[in-house]
Amino acid sequence: MPALPAPDYPADVRARLDADAKELIGRYPVARSALLPLLHLVQSEEGWVSPTGIRFCAEQLGLTTAEVTAVATFYTMYRRRPAGKYHVGVCTNTLCAVLGGDQIFAELKEHLGIENNETTEDGAVSIEHIECNAACDYAPVMTVNWEFFDNQTPESAKRLVDDLRAGHTVLPTRGAALCTFRETSRILAGFPDERPGALDASGAGGAPSLAGLRLARGETLPGGGTARVVSPRHQEGADAAPGGPSQGAPSAHDAPAETAASDPHRTGDAAGPAAPEGGEDR
Question: What's the whole-model pTM score?
Answer without folding.
Answer: 0.73
